[in-house]
Design the sequence.
């Protein structure tokens, strides 16, 4: 377990550094899916590794070992983990879980806000037009979701650009992009190293919606012009987090739309998938080694107790009796 328990931590750092730069040049839809899967897998590996390190380190404390009926010497011999490492791992684990709880509450509040706003928007159709001169356009996730556009925004765009704007927002709702955002926000709350994945994921979602809008209206130039004009018109408008056509790095989005569609290259995703597989296998191996280590330490403690008292200790594992217990059991007959 000494090496395998650290592999998920290393994979997390590698993906946090390399993945955001790689996926920006790839097709946005598979990029968003990859970033979401990478965030879930790496945060699971991160928490699992921290838990194993904390447990193995604290298990070597004599008082803890006495309660667990295992040998401290056996643990230190087979898998030494310094108490300082265990303490840091435990603090990081607790901090991550507490941050996850806070982020989950915020996401629930945001979902409640979105549903309440959907109910307040006049009408019951997918599109709601606000009688407001302030340029606004965003999607409200819900059941069903709503597209909200102000008259101020509509006046800033031509007919084709309006169609592109609405197609962009429909792509957000159709793809349930708010669920991707939730995944990235929660995982980034657990591990701040994953914040670059969340930022890259937000850009991928906007690019995903841009590409679907371009397919819908049949012109990448029209969508680029709609995105640019909408961003300029609403530059001074601030709203709660929502799926808006003016979100993300607008200049990069416009540049991507004015270029040919991104290539669908699988090599970067295959490499990332191999790293995620390595993360899962290493965590599973570390957990298995930890279980075997505890069993070995329990049997070692049983042998020590038996040698000291002349009888089998009560701490012998019931599922696999230690040789010392079998030996004395035979003597009793």
Sequence:
């Amino acid at each position: 377990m000494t090496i395998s328990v650290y592999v998920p931590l290393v994979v997390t750092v590698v993906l946090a550094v390399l993945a955001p730069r790689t996926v920006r040049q790839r097709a946005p839809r598979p990029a968003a899916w990859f970033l979401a899967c990478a965030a879930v897998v790496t945060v699971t590996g991160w928490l699992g590794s921290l838990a194993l390190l904390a447990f193995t380190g604290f298990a070597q404390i004599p008082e803890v070992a006495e309660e667990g009926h295992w040998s401290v010497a056996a643990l230190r011999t087979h898998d030494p983990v310094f108490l300082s490492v265990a303490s840091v791992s435990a603090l990081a684990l607790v901090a991550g879980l507490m941050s996850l709880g806070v982020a989950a509450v915020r996401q629930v509040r945001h979902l409640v806000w979105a549903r309440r706003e959907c109910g307040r928007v006049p009408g019951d159709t997918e599109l709601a037009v606000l009688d407001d001169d302030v340029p606004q356009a965003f999607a409200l996730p819900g059941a069903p979701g709503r597209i909200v556009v102000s008259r101020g925004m509509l006046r800033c765009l031509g007919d084709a650009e309006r169609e592109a704007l609405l197609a962009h927002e429909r792509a957000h709702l159709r793809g349930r992009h708010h669920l991707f955002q939730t995944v990235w926000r929660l995982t980034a709350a657990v591990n701040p190293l994953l914040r670059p994945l969340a930022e890259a994921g937000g850009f991928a979602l906007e690019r995903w919606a841009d590409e679907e809008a371009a397919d819908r209206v049949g012109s990448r130039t029209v969508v680029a012009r709609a995105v640019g004009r909408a961003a300029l018109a609403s530059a001074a408008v601030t709203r709660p987090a929502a799926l808006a056509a003016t979100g993300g790095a607008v200049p990069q989005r416009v540049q991507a739309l004015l270029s040919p569609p991104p290539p669908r290259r699988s090599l970067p995703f295959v490499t990332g998938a191999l790293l995620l597989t390595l993360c899962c296998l290493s965590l599973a191996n570390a957990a298995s080694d930890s279980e075997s280590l505890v069993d070995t330490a329990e049997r070692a403690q049983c042998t020590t107790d038996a040698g000291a008292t002349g009888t089998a200790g009560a701490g012998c594992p019931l599922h696999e009796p230690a040789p010392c217990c079998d030996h004395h059991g035979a003597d009793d007959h």
